[in-house]
Amino acid sequence: MMMLELDNITKSYASACGRLEVLRGISARVEPGQSISIAGSSGCGKSTLLNLIGALDKPDSGTIRLGGQNPAEMDERALAAFRNRKIGFVFQLHHLLPQCTVLENVLLPTLAGGRARESALSLQQRAMQILERVGLSDRAHELPARLSGGQRQRAAVARALINRPQLLLADEPTGSLDEETAESVMGLLLDLNRSQKITLIVVTHSSRLAGRMERRFELRQGKLVERPL
Amino acid sequence: MNQVRWIIRSLLFYKWISAGILLSALTATAVLTGSLLVGDSVQITLARQMENRLGKVRLALLSPHTFFRSQLAEDLSDCLDAQTAGVWLLNGRIENVEGTQRVNRITVLGVDDSFALMGPSGKAPWIESLGEGLAVNTELADRLGVSAGQEVILTLQKTGGLSAESTLSPLSEAQQSFRLTISAIVSDDSFGSFALSADSTGALNAFADRRTLARWLDQSDQANIVLIGKEVSPTAAAEALRKSVRLEDLGLTVRAIEATHFIEVQSRNVFINREISEGLLKADPSALGVLTYFVNEIAKDGRRCPYSMVSAVGSSDPAKMNTFTRLADDEIILNEWLAEDLKADAGDTVTLKYYIPGSKTDRLTEQTESFRVHSVIPMMGLGADSTLMPEFPSLADVDNCRDWKPGIPIDLGKIRPQDEAYWNKYRGAAKAFISLPTARRLWANRFGDLTAVRYPAKIGLQRLKDTLRQPIDPLSAGLSFDAVGARGQKAAAGMTNFGALFAGLSMFLLGSALILTALTFHFSIQRQADQIGLFKALGFTARRICRMFLGQGLTLAVVGSILGTALALLYTRLLVWALSTLWSGAVAGSAVEFHIRPFTLIAGGVAGLLVSLISMLIGLRKLLDRPAADLLGGAVEPPTTAKAARWNLPISILLGLAALSLAIGSLAVGVQQAASIFFISAAFLLSAAILLGRFFLLRRPFGPSGTPPRSILYLAIGNLSSRPGRSLAVLATMAAGVFLVTAVGLNRKSPPRDVLVRQSGTGGFVLLAESGLPVLGDLNDPNFQAELNLDLRQTGPAAFVPLRVRAGEDAGCLNLNRAQQPRLLGVRTADLRQRNSFVFGRLLKGTLTAAEGWDLLDLDFGPDIVPAVGDIGTVRWGLGLGVGDTLTQQDQFGRLFRLKIVAILDSSVLQGSLLISEANFTAHFGSVCGYQMFLIDGLPEKAGKLSAALTKALRRFGLEAVSTRQKLAALNAVENTYLAIFLVLGGLGLLLGTVGLGLVVWLNILDRRGELAMMQAVGFDRPVLFEMLWMEHTILLTAGVIAGSLTALIAILPALSSEVSRANFGILLLTLILILFSGWLWIRLAASAALSGTALAALRNE
Q1: For residue range B631-650, what is the model confidence (pLDDT) as tens digits?
Q2: Which residues contact B698 (CB under 8 A, 6 or more apart)?
Q3: Is B544 in Cβ contact with A112 (below 8 Å)?
């Protein structure tokens, strides 16, 4: 079964100059455990596509299947649960809650899932293991304001992993980081992809980072074109 | 990590904004709860007043036209197993001995120890010290300026006997005056404020010892009211009364007349009313009805016999018929003396001249009637029976007929020696007899249709007394029960809901606090908007997110409500203090005390919590509806386009044109309607202004297709379009707030400039006069004017519309209680119809046109339904009724009848009373004599002189005249005080609203920190940025205030054309200045706080 199937997806927005067609019939297939990059110029619709894949938005037409399921057919509750269990998000801006510690931020997705079967202790242990993995175990009880940009982004990656997602979506995760930190975060994501067989889809401007993925796509004039490695 | 911890962390992290939400929720709760507590304070004050007023009294037995044995109170006490007190209750007036201070309408009570037991404390030690003196309550002592030991002159209305209003009643006997010493001043808790009517204004009571008062009035141990200290069912009360009552309690006397072998029943009131006379005649088939009347002359062929009694004797039993009872309608029997005097014999025609019996207030009319002599009877038996003459005052009780002084004019010159000799020998023995049906046709009047009923002596006096108790129901013969306790409770409970009223008056304050709550909460969650987006992305359902964020709000709202409830006590105290001082006009001068009910406190707190939560939910729902991706990207407001504004301009123009057309159209209608139309047209204009503002804000003056900014001002104006929703909200809220507060607060009611305008609240009358004691005569009659020494030469012409008054509760806005038994006025409808006085607001559908409004009072709606008219303050607000509604009342015999509201007048000097026709009035309240209210036509410039002349001439009636303009102004004062309260509280609300403006400014600036940092980076210094920010928000504030004020001024143009208080204009100007100043201050504070961070930090965050 495919991890992701995009079938003739279109999406447009209203603008001052009329309707702006961003995505024009996009189709693609992604196998489980693959790493994918999506590149393209600013405003070409990369984030829009990622939001559609992550079921944060709905296409005007076409079908998206994630692990064989169509999110468009789910009600709000099922969709929320689906996102919570199956998908992990890493944003360009980390979006950590400033009022919560790093550990609390990592545990945040578990609050939505209603994980009655898992004790708070086991969740906390798992969170600490993930923080260990991303190199932040010693900063677990700090507030995000006291972390550097790279640390914040790694904390955001840890948060994305807490529910063991099958699909990790990263929207320009290194866009606001320096080269060295960006390299470190990207390395972390790829490591997770390979070691845990998590399907990874990264939107990036960087051709160097894109080059490290198994498959490379480019969004151009609303069409998704796969580039050879 | 759990939800509670997240909430606590969030609240602490955003501590300043959390404090803002808490303070707003606190204010909303304090205002709402405080308003409700004002309602409690007024209600509990009224309940306390009722307790002081009635004490333990729950039921009262009333006898409006006679008095009864005081023993009846004790008999009822035994039957009902209840505490009772027999009391005299009379109307009177009082003045100090110097005559410098006078109170014209007081209640004089004759009391004993049993009255003390009925009081709220069960103690009234002042009663023991009454002696021959008089005690007055605190209210009366204050008005009169007297203290214990000082002397006063008390004048009482005569009670019992022939009605003072009867034609035959001598004017001199209507009042009695006494010089008395004040023995004590009685406080409210010593039962000093006793009153049967539920009026929130204090009772004016004077107390005398019951037996002493009876002695002053030449009465024996009597009373005219029994107070009963127990709730008793009507059936049980009626049963107890039937068991206890005796004939003398109904004003009847029974005596055996040995010389005539008759037992005779007479009334102390001279005439026996129909209800009793029917019962007396039915009691025994042998009963004979007797009607004796005083005629001016009996004549035949130029021979005249002056001033004689003529009787009629009749029976309904054919078996008992005799010469007297069988007389034809035109036949007359003469006694031998008269036949001799007139040289008349059977078959001759004689004429009778007599005054039509009736009211002193009617013009005295002499009537002549011819009779054919049936026979002549000897001077024995009925022919010389002096007992047929009833106790006509100043006539039957004098030794010499030259001492006669009845109410009708007597020409003593006509009395001949033989007449004196007849009087000396036969007293008032009737000289002639006519048939009873004819006598009733000629002389029956509203006071009765018989003067005696006779029974054969063989029945036996005691047996007759026992027999007569059966057919005469005391409750239809003049005695009636009044459930004063239930009525008082209903009146106190049914009062205006001051809680709701003050919640309404505090509407703007409450609204501002709620808007502020919503704004601060919205502000708080906007700061966390990306978190909402994140939660959505992480798989939190909208409901879950809503719960989490509402949890933040709930925590703050709960704390805010608890603290707000405590603050409400302070707010209530402040309002109660203001109601007792600055705004005492709103409660007609009643002393409102601070009281709280725990339930209201809790309910207010919970209500404050709920409204705060609802206002938060509204703000939250908007954000929850936004897509997660937008929220994560910082797009918290939905995009707006200039396209959305394209209809604003044409709609705005259309609304402006509609407003103009309405304003022009209103010139063709009356002032009242014009006020409403101007208000609507101003509201249209305001909407047009707001839409115009929206059009310009959404049009984006510069941008991709516009021109580049040329100045800071230009930049500031352009920036307003960046958040059009927020900018428009500020503009619209300020404009609408200022408009409503100004238009409503300034739209005061004022009397018309020209009081002579008939179609106005004055009815075209210059004076309204009220007298403490009834005026028994027609003030329009020059003879009566002469009798009163009323000299109108200096005052110009005057005409009087007299009104009969059935005392009752003030049903207008001067009474905080809801009147259950409103004061009724009996008016000769023709008087008002001819003048076309007052403005009819609403008429009963399907009846008459407005021009014929007063004719509605003469309509016949069937038995027991009496048409009534009142002004809007009385009918709608005082009684809570509308046109077509009915109000059940008791007549003087305790019978129920319904007042049907057939029309509602616009606000008028008649507020507080219902008007019915004089015919209906006398039919239901025949025992109420004379007139106690007068609408007076005259010259406005001489109104003062006329008032002084009337007050002087009618001093003994305790007449007070006030100008109708003054009266109307006093009545309007209540409503105008409410408007002043609305203006002050609304102004405070707007001031609080400017804090919200500051918050919006802060939010805007924080949202634009990146943009501002960029501007700093490219060379704009902080003062320039500050100026730009200050300008753009000041433009909004000033535009809102100007739009609101200008449209409000248009709305009140009709009121401006009459009269608007300068004081209110002052308050308004002060409010507007404070709003602008406060708004500017908050803008400056918000701008400098938001610009305080460094540009670098902002840019880094960006």
Answers
A1: 776 665 655 555 666 777 88
A2: B640, B641, B642, B644, B645, B648, B721, B724
A3: yes
Between CA A151 and CA B163 the distance in angstroms is 106
Q: What is the pLDDT of residues B1010-1024, one digit of tens each?
A: 777 767 766 677 787
Chain centre to alpha carbon of residue B998: 46
Query: Average of pLDDT values for B588-617?
Result: 84
Domain count, chain A: 1
Q: What is the pLDDT of residues A99-125, one digit of tens each?
A: 888 998 898 888 876 554 577 788 889
| pLDDT tens track for B871-911 | 988 998 888 888 889 999 988 777 889 999 999 998 899 99
Helices B15-54 + B3-13 axis angle, to 10: 100
C-alpha to C-alpha distance for B581 and B575, rounded to whole angstroms: 10
Three-class DSSP category at B881:
coil
Q: Which of B534, B546, B630, B1100 to mutate to test the interface with A (most CBs of A within 10 A)?
A: B534
pTM above 0.95, yes or no: no
Is A163 exposed, middle or buried (CB count within 10 Å of its CB: 0-12, 13-18, 19+)? buried
Residue B778 CB coordination number (10 Å): 19
Which strands sit side by side in the sheet containing A18-30, from one edge to the other?
A: A18-30, A4-15, A61-66
Q: Which domain holds residue A89?
A: 32-61+74-227
pLDDT in tens, B747-804: 666 777 788 888 888 999 999 999 888 888 889 988 888 888 888 888 888 999 999 9
Is the residue at A166 inside a domain? yes
CB contact under 8 A, A57 and B530: no
Q: Is A18 within 8 Å of chain B by CB?
A: no
A vs B, Cβ pairs < 8 A, gives 84
What letter does residue A176 receive in the DSSP assignment?
A: T
Q: Which residues of A touch B3 (CB under 8 A)?
A: 111
Q: What string of DSSP letters covers B356-405?
A: PPSBTTSPP-EEEEEEEEEEEE-SSGGGG-GGGS---TTTTT-SSGGG--
Closest CA to B165 of B802, B933, B928: B928
ipTM here: 0.79
Provide CB contacts within 8 A for B970, sequence distance 6+: none
Query: What is the average pLDDT value for chain B, to the nearest integer?
Result: 83
B629:A57 CB<8 A? yes
In residues, how long is chain B? 1102
* CATH assignment of the domain containing A148: 3.40.50.300
DSSP state of B86: E
